[in-house]
């Protein structure tokens, strides 16, 4: 993970790379989840200290060298070294003041209720309305606090209570096309209406498990404070528009999904260090929507300063000093009454409050359309089970939400039409092992719309591998039935190798040639596409004696014990998969006196025949079982 070089990867026009910092090549440092996301970060010389009221962790020599290690929870959520640097960087107070006055602002505090602080170069300062915010600032809200931030590109951001976010980057030119911004949400809830950068550049919000590429839309992000799972959803904007954003795995940069349906939330959960994340769609509950309402309204009031949630038509949206709220005019063409001079003055270091900008212009939107019923389908993402059977199921109707003019209807009627559910197709990202029919692993009951499967039947999938099922059905939100599809994605995990047939003890004679080939059936791996590698050592970890060699490619021990070597060697064989999971088997090699010249045979319980004589000892496979070729170091 952090010991792998991360090169900038361009995916769907989003650029993924650490901004303004070298990539860390240190080993990832584990920290408990609650302390990782809620703790206080400080430095003592080159040591990092993460502390709370009940515990403290010191990471020695963390600040040595040019790069910083990522911090990760046992579940696999992480904070990059860049974020840790932002929370602990320090200079003298006088230097901090000088830096603040010399660096252009990236935004300012438009609204605040309660107590919030900004940590800038290690110096915490309480925030007030109108305060300037700079690149690299860490903003943190207290209990019962909300804060609204206006950025120079027109982006409006709201933070709820007990939230912490790093303003990593804001590169903005109103006439340019290479704009970019990066925010790192550590904990808490934010709502954001994206501005000019999202429309004509590269805008990202990074969380401990996923990175979001924003495309000019209202979004909501929530991160649980205890263990790092993140909830993502797209919101309906005041003019009725619903945008979209791309969601990527934070570590790999792989696209998880495109989020574009209001009323749903995508929950991204870490499944362990080095494991792929889980991304599951869920319907928003009434409590979810009520909880987000006040923060959403605050952000809309920043983006549309005269927004009135209780008004109708044009009165509801009011007027705006934000040029991006006017969809009918280009940004560069706006005049002095558009709010652009105010934003440019802010970038130059002048403190301005958005509500004080002059000459707002009215924005008119079309009247609301007649009542419209719409159907949104939440896809299902699951993970394999390594041992089974593990029966799992879900009802198609539970994955469907019906909205009336954007409001969720609670009744279940019409979500699923009985008799219409069917499995339309299945594909696997890797070749399916012989004897496995993917179609038979998932069953759809057309009468009830319940989908069932045994998760352990997908143990052949490894890390980064998946089986994807397409399920067709019909919904009837109104008088007519509507065809819909739902996808079930089952992701693989890494399964450790296992010992299936333990190695039998072997014998050799001093002064006589010894050879033994480990049968291919000794080790196995549920992940069908994993390749095992092997090494041999003594049971105590020491190397094999100089006379005995092990070829990991042919799985062969060979050598001639010297005279007087009468002893018992305890030998350990270690099988490793591509993700460093291992299985270990051990056997004894008994070296006997060479004065016994008689020739003898013996058979073990697995059907292996052993023949020995004065000058050699040969091991052969006595039965006719097929051997399996295995690769090794």
Give the topology.
Blueprint: E1 9-11, E2 14-16, E3 29-30, H1 33-38, E4 40-44, E5 47-51, E6 56-59, E7 71-72, E8 78-79, H2 81-88, H3 93-102, E9 107-113, E10 116-120, E11 123-126, E12 132-133, E13 138-141, E14 146-151, E15 156-159, E16 164-171, E17 179-193, H4 196-200, E18 201-206, E19 210-215, E20 218-223, E21 230-234, E22 244-249, E23 255-259, E24 264-269, E25 278-283, H5 286-303, H6 313-317, E26 319-320, H7 340-347, E27 361-362, E28 373-377, E29 380-383, E30 391-395, E31 400-404, E32 407-409, E33 422-428, E34 442-445, E35 450-454, E36 466-475, E37 482-491, E38 498-499, E39 506-509, E40 513-517, E41 523-524, E42 533-538, E43 548-551, E44 556-559, E45 567-576, E46 582-592, E47 600-603, E48 608-612, E49 616-621
Parallel strand pairs: 3-7, 17-18, 29-37, 39-46, 40-49
Antiparallel strand pairs: 1-2, 4-5, 5-6, 7-8, 9-12, 9-14, 10-11, 10-13, 13-16, 14-15, 15-17, 16-17, 17-20, 18-19, 19-22, 20-21, 21-24, 22-23, 24-25, 26-27, 28-31, 30-35, 31-32, 33-36, 34-35, 36-37, 38-41, 40-44, 42-45, 43-44, 45-46, 47-48, 48-49
First-last Cα distance: 23 Å
How many separate domains make up the residues?
Answer: 4
Q: Which stretches of 5+ consecutive residues score pLDDT under 50?
A: 1-26, 91-99, 312-371, 597-633
Structural class: mainly beta
CATH architecture label name of the largest domain:
Sandwich
What's the pLDDT, averaged over the residues? 75
- Write down the CATH topology of the largest domain: Jelly Rolls
Largest sheet: 17 strands, mixed
**General shape:** flat
The percentage helix is under 10%
State the CATH class of the largest domain. Mainly Beta
Count of DSSP-assigned helices: 7
| Percentage of residues in DSSP E strands | 35-45%
Calculate Rg over CA atoms: 31 Å
Tell me how many strands there are: 49
């Amino acid at each position: 993970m952090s010991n792998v070089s991360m090169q900038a990867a361009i995916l769907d026009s989003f650029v993924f790379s650490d901004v303004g910092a070298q990539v860390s090549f240190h080993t990832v440092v584990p920290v408990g989840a609650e302390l990782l996301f809620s703790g206080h970060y400080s430095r003592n010389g080159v040591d990092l200290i993460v502390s709370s009221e009940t515990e403290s962790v010191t990471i020695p020599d963390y600040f040595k060298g040019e790069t910083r290690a990522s911090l990760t929870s046992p579940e696999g959520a992480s904070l990059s070294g860049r974020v840790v640097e932002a929370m602990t960087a320090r200079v003298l107070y006088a230097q901090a003041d000088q830096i603040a006055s010399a660096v252009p602002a990236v935004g300012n505090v438009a609204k605040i209720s309660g107590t919030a602080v900004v940590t800038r170069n290690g110096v915490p300062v309480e925030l007030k309305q109108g305060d300037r915010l700079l690149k690299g600032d860490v903003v943190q809200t207290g209990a019962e606090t909300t804060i609204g931030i206006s950025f120079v590109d027109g982006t409006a951001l709201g933070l709820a209570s007990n939230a912490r976010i790093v303003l990593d980057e804001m590169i903005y030119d109103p006439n340019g096309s290479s704009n970019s911004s990066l925010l790192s949400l550590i904990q808490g809830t934010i709502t954001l209406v994206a501005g000019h950068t999202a429309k004509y550049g590269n805008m990202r919000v990074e969380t401990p498990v996923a990175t979001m590429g924003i495309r000019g839309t209202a979004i909501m992000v929530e991160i649980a404070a205890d263990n790092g799972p993140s909830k993502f959803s797209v919101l309906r904007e005041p003019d009725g528009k619903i945008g979209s954003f791309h969601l990527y795995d934070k570590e790999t940069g792989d696209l998880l999904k495109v989020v574009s349906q209001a009323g749903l939330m995508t929950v991204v959960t870490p499944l362990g260090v080095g494991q792929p994340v889980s991304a599951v769609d869920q319907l928003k509950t009434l409590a979810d929507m009520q909880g987000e309402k006040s923060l959403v309204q605050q952000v809309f009031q920043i983006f549309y300063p005269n927004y009135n949630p209780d008004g109708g038509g044009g009165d509801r949206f009011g007027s705006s000093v934000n040029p991006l709220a006017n969809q009918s005019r280009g940004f560069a063409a706006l005049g002095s009454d558009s709010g652009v001079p105010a934003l440019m003055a802010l970038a130059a270091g002048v403190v301005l409050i958005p509500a004080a900008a002059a000459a707002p212009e009215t924005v008119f939107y079309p009247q609301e359309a007649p009542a419209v019923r719409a159907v949104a389908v939440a896809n299902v993402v699951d993970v394999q089970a390594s041992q089974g059977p593990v029966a799992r199921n879900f009802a198609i109707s539970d994955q469907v939400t019906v909205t009336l003019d954007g409001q969720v209807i609670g009744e279940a009627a019409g979500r699923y039409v009985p008799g219409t559910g069917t499995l339309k197709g299945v594909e696997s990202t890797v070749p399916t092992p012989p004897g496995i029919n993917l179609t038979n692993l998932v069953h759809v009951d057309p009468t009830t719309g319940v989908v069932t499967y045994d998760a352990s039947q997908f143990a052949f999938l490894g890390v980064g591998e998946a089986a994807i099922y397409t399920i067709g059905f019909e919904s009837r939100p109104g008088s007519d039935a509507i065809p819909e599809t739902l996808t079930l994605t089952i992701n693989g995990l890494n399964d450790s190798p296992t010992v299936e047939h333990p190695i039998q003890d072997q014998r050799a004679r001093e002064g006589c040639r010894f050879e033994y080939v480990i049968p291919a059936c000794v080790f196995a791996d549920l992940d069908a596409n994993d390749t095992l590698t092997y090494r041999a050592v003594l049971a105590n970890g020491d190397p094999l004696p100089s006379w005995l060699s092990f070829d990991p490619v042919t799985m062969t021990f060979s050598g001639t014990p010297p005279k007087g070597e009468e002893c018992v060697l305890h030998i350990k064989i270690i099988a490793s998969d591509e993700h460093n999971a291992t299985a270990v088997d051990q056997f004894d090699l008994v070296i006997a006196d060479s004065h016994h010249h008689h020739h003898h045979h013996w058979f073990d319980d697995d059907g292996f025949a052993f023949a020995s004589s004065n000058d050699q000892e040969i091991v052969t496979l006595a039965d006719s079982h097929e051997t399996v070729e295995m690769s090794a170091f």
